[in-house]
Structures are given as C-alpha cells and as structure tokens.
Amino acid sequence: MHEDYWNRCLNLIEKKLETQSYKTWFKPIQSIDYNDNILTLQVPNKFFYEWIEEHYLDLLNDSVVKILGNKGKIEYKINKDISNLHSKEKKSNYIFKNKKIVPDMIVSNLNSNYNFENFVEGKNNNIAINASKSISENPGTNPFNPLLIYGEVGQGKTHLLHSIGNETHHNKKNHRIFYTTSEKFTSQFISSLRNNKVEDFTNFYMNIDLLLIDDVQFFYGKEKTQEIFFHIFNHLNLNKKQIIITSDRSPKNLDGLEKRLVSRFKWGLTVELEKPSFETRKKILKQKIKFNKINISEEIINYISFEVNTSVRELEGVIISLIAHATIEKSDINLDLAKKVIGRIIKDSNKEIDIDFIQKTVANFFKITKEEMKDKIRKKEIVIARQVAMYFSKDFTNHSLKSIGNHFGGRDHSTVIHAVQSVNDMIDTNNIFKHNIEDLKKRFQAKSA
Length: 449
Ligand code: ADP
Ligand code: MG
What we know:
By secondary structure, this protein is of the alpha/beta class. It contains 19 helices and 9 strands. The strands form 2 sheets. The protein has a 6-stranded parallel sheet, with helices on both faces. The protein has a 3-stranded mixed sheet with strand order 1-2-3. Helix 6 runs antiparallel to helix 7 (198-206). It is globular, with a radius of gyration of 28 Å. The termini are far apart. Bound molecules: adenosine-5'-diphosphate and magnesium ion. Adenosine-5'-diphosphate binds next to helix 5 and helix 12.
C-alpha cells in the first residue's frame, strides 16, 4: 500500500519537475512503510533529504496532502547500507542552514574548454587517454578505478581530468560529477570543521558518482584531511563510484601522504603523462594555431617544436606571446620574432631564484628582517628562519654551500649543511613546521615555474 501512495505522489511530482531533477532527486527514493498517516521514505543519505527539503518541500507537501489527505506526513529514513557511518534517522522539516557547501550536484566546476577533442594524442599520453575514455563510458565499473594520473607541471593532467568529467556528463546525464583540487577540498573541510558541518561535508562527497581530485600532492602533511578523504575514498570505492586523482609525482614519491592512502591509489591504474615527443609537440602546436586562426609557416613550427621541449604549457605560452607580439608590432610571425619570443620565455623559465629573494621571502614569513638573518643573533626564531632560508637556497639556486654561507653573513659551508639537516629533522618531527615549509616551497616553485 505504501508503494502505491508513494507512486501516486511521484506521478504528481514528475509532472511538475524537469526530468533531470526528478530522476536525480526523487527516483532514488523508496517508500518503506505507511502507518498512522505517516509515509516513511528511504533516502540514500542525509544530504539527500536536506536537499529535497531545501528545494522541493512545497512540491512534496502538496503532493502528499493530495494523496494522503491533510493529516498526511512524511518521515525519512536513511539507508544505512549505503550511507555513511554517522548518519542518524531524522525527522522531516530539517532546515538546511549552510547553503554554501552545496554546489550544483550534477556537474560541478567543469571547464568545457578542456575536452578530448582538443587533447592531442601521442605516445606520451595514449594510455592515459584510452583509460580516461573508457572510464567516461563506464564510470565506476571498469578496471581503472581509481585512476591516478601523474606527470610534471604543464603536461595536461588538469585538461584530462576535465575531459573525463565533460565526456562522462555527456554519456551519463544523471551522474553527479565533481571536480576539485586537493587544496580546495582541504579548505572546505577545515571550514566544515569550524562550522560543525563535517557530516554535511562527508555526505556531500559520499554522494558523488565521479570524483575528480586534482593535485593530491598538496595533501602533504595534512593528516586530518587525509583521514576524511580516506573514508570518503573507501565509501565511494565500495559503492563502485569512480575516483580519479592527479599528482605531480609518482605514488612512490608521494611522501607526506599516508601510506594506506597511497596504497589505495594504486588499486586501479596508475599512469604517467610524459613529455611529448617532437612529433607530438608539432601536432599540438598545429592544433593551437588552427584554434587561434593564425598563419605560421612550417619552418617556424618546426623551430618552435624543436626548441620548446619542456611542457605543453610552455608551448602554449609561446603561441600566445607570438600572437600578442605580432598584433602589437603589426608584423608577421616570422622566424626572428619566434626566436625573440622563445628566447625570452625559455630564459624566463630558467630564471633562477636568487638568494636575496629567498631571504626576503623567508624573513617576511617569519616576521623578522633580512638583516637579522645575516647577523650573528642566536635568538631561536631567527636561527630557524636563517636555517630555512639556507635550506631553500640550496634547493632553488645553483650556489655552492660556500657561496650560500657567504650570503648569510660569511658563515662557512658546514653551517649550511647543519642548517639543511636541522630543517629536515624539524620537517620530520613538527607538523606545523612542515606545513610552513610546504607553503614557502610553493611560493618558490610558483616563482620559478
Ligand atoms: P597540468 O595540470 O599537468 O599542469 P594542464 O592540464 O594545465 O597541465 O595543461 C597545461 C596546458 O597545456 C593547458 O592549457 C592544456 O590545455 C594544454 N595541454 C596539455 N596537454 C595537451 C595536449 N596533449 N593537447 C592539447 N593541449 C594540451
Ligand atoms: Mg594541473
């Protein structure tokens, strides 16, 4: 009998809603009981009924009253089998307060400019592309779950991730697809902790069909975030939901991430996006040229493809610069212009961060002055800041230990070695410190990228 009531309600609801919303939010609900004017509905999780109450309460009430009469009421029960550990039964009329953490659940954060059509295939990426395409056809139920794509900056990881999202959306209209970066995930989690909304946060993620997480290396040292991600990961995996992760380094080098998490990443397929070969670089260039509707001779294409062999992002950078120069200088794109632009871009990218910049940045970070860093002062904060600056000078410049020591008020090379060791020790033993180092490192990487 309860099924009959619910089906009749559904018929009414279906007439008033777009098919998509109806299928997403009402189709998954099952009625399980009718007693004492109360129709009990089973929903997949708490997030689900909160969403319904927030968006479709009137619609639902109207139809319930029409079918069950004025005394008719609804209660929800969460399906324990598929919901998370903390879910509790909850009565109707819950008011969902924090709207911010509820993005569009069908497709979110996807950039439609990144798709398979404009992703050039080569020997360097064809395994990744093929796995990605087959995931888009059968998300969740394929041998590539999770898929971990790794590779250096600018080789197309983010592009590929969005392509999978876009193509899956095309194939599976009702799939909830969500793209985010590990950094956004972390800050969202932290704010949910602050606002006592962790349950909403986990529920949200546990209800995604295709989860795309970019740049997991930034989970580095964030233990709490990793723990919650681990639970979400397990839940999604258990329910055959698809997870795709990218990282700028191989799982072997993902230190700072929990072992159990990294070992989960390796359950499916791990694939590298390598640097494109000369031929592939040419193909990519030609595609970008066509897209930008410009004319460049084969000779120049060959020249650029030969010279710019670092990343696809740099290739793109060259094209964009060339177009800009040609427009501003009202000249054709000739070999001279190409040489000039490449010269500058390649030089820029090889630009070394100097010790002065490192000292300034680190001093700023630790709220001391650059001069104190070079002084003989032995105050603890200053000593630490000095050691950190030495540590980064060794990592990001080509200066010898002796030369680094000289830049820090004439200290000798053994002081620099000692500084590097101390910093490494502190990274191992102090999480906050580790965090700070990682933050600083990102600034230097951004500067040298
Ligand atoms: P990553 O995330 O690995 O740092 P991105 O996905 O941001 O790299 O790629 C950098 C740029 O290069 C993007 O604009 C992307 O569209 C482009 N790109 C990378 N690989 C390819 C490719 N195989 N074909 C076409 N464009 C590419
Ligand atoms: Mg990226």
